[in-house]
Amino acid sequence: MRFEILGSLRMTDADRTFTISAPKVECLLAAMLVRAGNVTSTDQLCAGIWRDDPPRRATATLHVYISQLRKMLKGANAEPSPIVTRFPGYVLELGDHTLDAHDFQRLAQQGRAAARAGRHGEVSALCGQALSLWRGTVLGELRGGDIVDEFATWAEETRLECVELRNEADLALGRHRELVGPLYALVSKHPLIEAFHRQLMLALYRSDRRADALQAFHAVRSSLDRELGISPCRQLHELHQEILLDSGAALTRAA
Question: Which fold has domain 2-98?
Fold first, then answer.
């Protein structure tokens, strides 16, 4: 079975897809998948399910939910449930099962290594594979508990890192024209991430759109000043000057 949490929580087995309709049991499984392979205490699981308002018999109710979840996840061939009791709580042991978040983390790590080695084609492919695993907002309706929220924050930051790495690789591979549209969308959605603005300026400049590249700098400068009262970083200023001078240095910066 494959567990997927880079979006809504679901499970797939061959051609079938499963979801859990009971909200509290779904919250429990989400927390255990986020910490797959690690023991999660009873107190942590209760906090993940009921936040700051646990019922009087929260621990007993948790045991009932664990029993229900074990039955749901038990294999059709009498395979043991992946949920194991281990003091001071429980652990979900994947065994032969897979988790999309683990694949995402592996691909992201391989992408970083390829970037350090300057293997641009490999970076683009690996980061592209990592990003293709995302189906939407990570565990969107299950947010609110510390375990899920911390994971969601890590996952989103790593996703943005993969986007940045792939953009850099694609710029180095001469794919600047096809990056312009996606980069405009990125700076609109993430106006305070200066790396995306720099990549947009460079992609525009290399696409013979010097005026648009300069306009992109003025846009991020205005946004940063308005939102935070700061000016763009040194890299943005230097790229702006290179574009103003039309020196050609910007054309080879990421090559």
Answer: Arc Repressor Mutant, subunit A (1.10.10)
